[in-house]
Write the structure tokens for this entry.
Amino acid sequence: MLMSTWSFLKRHKRKFVFAGALVGGVYLLGKYAQRKIREIQEREAAEYIAQARRQYHFESNQRTCNMTVLSMLPTLRDAIIQHLNSESLTTLLKTKPANKLEIWKDLKIISFTRSIVAVYSTCMLVVLLRIQLNIIGGYIYLDNSISKNGLAPLAPPDVQQQYLSSIQHLLGDGLNELITVVKQAVQEVLGGVSLKRNLSLQELEQHFNQIRTRIEQGNGTAQKRPLSWYMMPDEENTLAAQACGLTEKDVATIKLLNETRDMLESPDFSTVLNSCLSRGFSRLLDNMAEFFRSPQGDPPQACTADSLSQVSLPLAKIIPIVNGQIHSICSEVPSHFVQVGYPHV
């Protein structure tokens, strides 16, 4: 029995060797495949977790952006009203002064100027804060990743605070310069328009477009400057120009400022900002449309574009309407102008 079995094995030795090699190869291949599948699953799980963390971090950062913008709107509104105080003129008109016509002309320029400045500055505030907070958000995400390796943070809290303080330029010198340019453009476009002249919404839109052209393209006597010029100080006025030595915090802050300036000067930013401005002025006209009524007294929601083009009001009656728009534009809660009027950046 043993001899016959041995003879059988000898005769079929190659087959058994081949079968054993095949079975062993299949087994090893199966183990290798299992290991690779497990590695792929683990890598996909890690990527999914990382993506979820990035998504949560991004969404959290956007909520922070919205809250920060809304919290700063009252400061912006008060600064504009302080520089363009139309209330003092309306109070003066109630006393029936001898120079009533001149006061009305001044009120016309100031009222349009402050609403237009409110649109520009609110839009700039929205996009600038989003850029700044998203840049900081990116650094915070990186710092959280490298902190596990014991490395120093790229943007510690004191650097973040110093970097964010640059927004004061928009609320200070930048706003003053913007007011000067807008007021000049308003004077050029509306200065000669009679207070008795009737204007429709379409005609108002044309005037707004003419004013925007002078501000953004430098037509007339206004000097052409990029809108980013009002949002950040000139490079020579930054920390880099200080005569004394720069600390590590200053160097890190300058790096963040330079990254921001590069973004503000990019074509993509110009596209986004122009889109925001178009939405902002469209929202402004929508707000004013509520005060225009058709001759039949139809409610505002029943008014079509054609019917609104037929409705006109004397400029003297439009002035109080446009003058009060700043409280809608710079309203912190709720701010449909900011939350609906502007797209996310």
